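FW: tagging you since you asked about this chain on Friday. Here's the raw sequence from the shared folder, copied in full. Didn't touch anything.
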Amino acid sequence: MGRFAGSLPTDMPRRSPKTPEQILTDVFGHQQFRNQQADAIHEVLHGNHCLVIMPTGMGKSLCYQIPALVLASQHRSEREECAPLTLVMSPLIALMKDQVDALLDRGVDATFINSSLQRDERLRRYANIAKGHYDLLYVTPERFRKQDFRDVLSQREIVLLAIDEAHCISEWGHDFRPDYTRVGELRTWLGAPTTIALTATATPDVQADIIRQLHLDDDQVRHFHAGIDRPNLSLDVVQTWDDDAKLDQIVTTRQNIVGSGIVYFTLIGKLSDFSERLWEQKIPHLIYHGDLPRDRRRQLQDSFMNEDGHLVLATNAFGMGVDKSDIRYVLHADLPGSLESYYQEIGRAGRDGLPSKCLLMYDERDLATQMEFLQWSNPDAEYYERVWYLLKHESEQIQAFGIEWVREKLHAKQKHDRRLETTLGMLDRWGVISGGLRPMKATVVSDLPDHLSDPVKLDAKRERDQRKLLAMVQYAKYDGDRKAFIHRYFGLED
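HL: got it, structure written out here
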C-alpha cells in the first residue's frame, strides 16, 4: 500500500495527541463512555481486531470514530506526512450521508464516496483523498469494483478498517450483500489493517461467519457483546383478527402517546388502505415506501427527522439512516419476516432512553403473506437459469418490450409473482449483468456463480429463511418474557 508523500505546512504548530476521553468530550459532547465502548476502543488502538455487537442506538459508531481521530492526532503530532485514513465500509448510502454530515458538524474531516455523487464531485473528493485530506472515508464495498477508486486509495495508508452493518458479510445474515464476500480479499489488498466489525444483530452462526469472511481466526478477534436489551422499550404482542382491530390499535396509540411514531407494513397496498382510513378520521400522518420517487422519500424522511410528533406509515424501506432519538412508539401492523428485522425496526424507538412502546399486531393471516414473500425471495436454480438464458439470448426483445415481456415468458398466469425482481437484483449484485434495470437495459457479462446455480446452496438458504420466519411466529405466540426469548435467539444467556 503506497503512502502519500506530501507534508503539512512547516509553520503548522505541533499538538499533543488526544486521548479517547478528550475526543469523547470535545468532539462528541459526552462525559463518559457507556456499555463496552471504552474497552473496544482500547483494543482497536492497540492494534487488535474486534467484533462489536451492540444494540441499535447505543453508540457503535464511536467504537471506530474515536480510534480514527486518536490515530490521526497521534500521526500529526509525530511526523509531517498526512494522517493515515480510517476506511468505513457501509451498505447504506443514506446512512453514510447522515453520519458524515454529523461528523462535519462536529469539525471532523470526513467524507463519503458512493453512487449518489455527480462525476465532478466524485473526482473532487478523489483528488482530496490523494492530497491527504479526510480522517474517515465512508464507502460501499461495491466501490472497490472501480479501478479509479482503487488507484486513488492506494496512495493512502489505511490504518483502520471498520465494517458497519457487519451481518451483511454473512450469507447467514438477514441482509446479505454479495460484495461483502470480498471483504477478506479487500483487507489483504489494503495491507491487512486493524479491523473492527460492528452490528446490532448477529446470531452465533453469523458471528462465526463474519470472522471467517474477514479471513481471520476466532482467536485473533476480541469479542464485545453488549447484549441486546433496551430496558426502556416495552415489547408487547396483541392478537388481532381483522384490519379494523389493527386500525383501532394505531388510533389508540396515536391518541395516548405524545411524540413521533412509526407503523410498519409489509405491503404497500395495505399501507395505502390504512392511510385512507386514517385520513377519514382526520388523523394526519406521512407515508413512506420504496415506490415513491427518491426526492419525495428524502423530503418525507427530513420532515420526520426535523419536526416533532409525526406519525409515519412505512414499509421496511424506512428506517435505515433514521437516527431520531425521541421516537416514542414503533408498531408492526404485519408480521415481520425475521426476528433480526423486527429487532432492528423496534431499535429505532426510544434512543433517548425514555420509555417507548413496541407493539406487534399478530394476525395469523399475515403468515401467508410472509410465506409468499419467502418463496419470491428464494428462486430455485432452474429459475435463475431460465432468466439468465432469456437475458443472454433474447436481449433485443427485452430491450424493446421491457421487463413485462420477460415476466410473460416466465409466468404468464401468475402476474403477481415477484421472483423475477429478486432474480434480477441478485444477478446485478453478483455482477452477472450490467446496465440499468429500469428501463430494462441489462446485458449478461458472466456466467451464473455457484451461489445462484447450486440447488444445494439455494435450498439451504431457503431453509434458513424458513427457520427465521418460524422463530418470528414463535415469538408472536410466546407467553413468557419476550426479551428473554430474543436473548436466546441471539445466543445470549437469560
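FW: DSSP finds 20 helices and 15 strands in the chain.
HL: agreed, and Residues 381-454 form one domain.
FW: great, closing this out.
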